[in-house]
Amino acid sequence: MSALNTDLYELTMAAGYFLAGKTNEVATFELSVRRLPSTRNFLLAAGLAQAVEYLRSLHFEADEIEYLRSLAHFANAPPEFFDYLSKLRFSGDLFALPEGTPAFANEPLAIVRAPIIEAQLIETYLIATFSFQTAVASKAARCVIAANGKPVIEFGSRRAHSPHAALLAARAAYIGGCAGSSNTESGKKFGIPVSGTAAHSWTMSFGDEREAFVTLQELLGENTVFLLDTYDTIDAARLTAEIGKPVWGVRLDSGDLVALSKEVRRILDAGGLHSAKIFASNDLDEYRLRELLNAGAPIDAFGVGTKLATSEDAPSLSAVYKMVEIKRGGRVHYTAKFNDEKNTRPGAKQVYRLADHDILALQNECSPDFGNQPLVRPILLDGDLLEPLPTAAIAHANAERSVAALPAELRDLEKPVPYRVEVSAKLHELTEQLRENVHVVRS
After folding, report:
1. How far apart are CA 257 and CA 94, in angstroms?
2. In terms of pTM, does the model score above 0.85?
3. Residue 28 pairs with which residues in a beta bridge?
4. CA neighbor of 240 nearest in space, from 219, 267, 262
5. Could you tell me which of 372, 360, 356, 374 has the C-alpha nearest to residue 410?
6. Alpha carbon 345 to chain centroid, angstroms
7. CA 397, 402, 408, 411 torsion-angle sign
8. Is the pLDDT of residue 441 over 50?
9. Which of 169, 180, 178 is nearest to 144 (CA)?
10. CA 182, CA 193: separation in Å to the nearest integer?
11. Greatest CA separation for the chain
12. Residue-averaged pLDDT of the chain
């Protein structure tokens, strides 16, 4: 990933910090989400692995530095600044929620403490990485809740906003609880179970549907899934029963999924294919999954595509990356933004999870009232990875446990339920002291 994949103002600020002699100042930034979307009672943290990969490989190529030299914005930058960039590597610390951890508004998904230029340059990439995967993982968790134990497969690669987004959406959806993905690269790169057999074009390429089905079965054996709706769904179900085993199941991709699944189930059972599964797709989301199951549709698994890979109803999060501390001259100065609509709290923070609420405290606070579940963990220290990151499968298992442990009302798909995040007394006091100090200085 190019170090230029950032907003220009990150780079102009970097040049300004260098010009002002701030290279030895160490800044602490927190990445959080200001408010949950109206259709989310919780978020599910994801994106850490890609953030770590980016930070550990951060550098500027010679041609990238020459490009910056050519921009008018850097005409007054000292020549030494470009030498500084040529040697830049991430040397700071990263703390973060483990992937698959539920998170709420204003809780840190990640905390960066690094020399100020390093900490500033990475803002754009970190916000994009954490917010996109967190959005998709959170949507996936809702689909899995709605499926009520039936597998959900992520099917959205062809509708994702880019091939790279498709790959990361597959990963995030798996972390969020999906059983697998149609994206083959996600299987190789992240160990995600992959799923898929044939499209309508397969059936249309043969002289008749029987030939298409028999040939597919010859290839796939017990993994065969017949797509039934190329011509007539019920006729294709009868053909499936005639052909018989081996077959994993059939897929329904259009029409009245409730009525069709019931009739297809009857036909398969009558033909002795009691173990054959019915897989459904076609513009599904958590609400449609719930409707189908509530209507008694005998569907065994679901493929959820566009609305999952794009997190269609909440395609972006109000993610922010704000400075909370800066160390200069050996002394830590706390920082915060005091605006009526966009307030932040000073100081690096920790999140403690109790049975029915969270406590947001300063990172160095301790109290028996906080319980024993600090959520934000050290990931990088001085640029070095403390231990190998958990695999996507481990994050998937973490999400499954963590979502199940949430209060039941948070798993409701319709009713907005506020979750209590209590601010510690010390954090509240620090915030008010800093607010007063800022008011005095401005007066």
Report:
1. 47
2. yes
3. 113, 325
4. 267
5. 356
6. 25
7. negative
8. no
9. 178
10. 9
11. 85
12. 96
Q: Write b or e for each residue in 250-284: b if 16 or more Cβ atoms lie within 10 A of its Cβ, otherwise e.
A: bbbbeeebbebbbebbebbeebebeebbbbbbbeb
pLDDT (tens digit, 9 = 90+) per residue, 367-420? 888 987 899 999 999 999 999 999 999 999 999 999 999 999 999 999 999 999
Please write down the long-range contacts of 318-321, taking CB distance under 8 Å and 24 or more positions apart.
318/33, 318/34, 318/35, 319/31, 319/32, 319/33, 319/34, 319/109, 319/127, 319/130, 319/131, 319/134, 320/31, 320/32, 320/33, 320/34, 320/127, 320/344, 321/29, 321/30, 321/31, 321/123, 321/126, 321/127
Q: What angle do CA 441, 347, 426 make, to 5 degrees?
A: 90
Backbone angles phi, psi at 220, to 5 degrees: -100, -15
Under DSSP, the state recorded for 374 is: B
Backbone angles phi, psi at 196, to 5 degrees: 150, 150
Q: Which two tokens stand for residue 429?
A: 């006091």
Helices (H), 58-157: 62-70, 79-87, 116-121, 123-147
For 101-145, what is each residue's pLDDT tens digit? 999 999 999 999 999 999 999 999 999 999 999 999 999 999 999
Half-sphere exposure of 88 (CA within 13 A, CB side): 32
**By the 8 A CB rule, do 304 and 29 touch?**
no
Residue type, 315: P
**Residue 324 CB partners (closer than 8 Å, separation 6+):** 28, 29, 30, 334, 335, 336, 344, 345, 346, 347, 348, 349
CA distance 44 to 286: 16
Tokens representing 303 are 């493929």
Both tokens of 399, joined, read 């999400």
Q: Is the pLDDT reported for residue 440 higher than 70? A: no
* Per-residue model confidence (pLDDT) at position 80: 97
In this structure, what token pair is assigned to residue 360? 């947001």
Integer Cα distance of 287 and 146 in angstroms:
7
Tokens 């999400």 belong to which residue? 399
Ranges assigned E (strand) in 186-314: 225-227, 249-252, 277-280, 301-304
For residue 375, give both structure tokens. Answer: 């959520």
CA nearest neighbour of 125 among 260, 29, 221: 29
The H or E element spanning position 153 is strand 152-154
Rounded to 10°, the helix 8-19/79-87 angle is 110
DSSP-derived secondary structure for 209-245? HHHHHHHHHHHHGGG-EEE--SS-HHHHHHHHHHH-S
Strand-pairing partners, residue 362, are 349
Dist. CA 35–CA 125, nearest whole Å: 20
> 58: how many CB neighbours lie within 10 A of its CB?
19
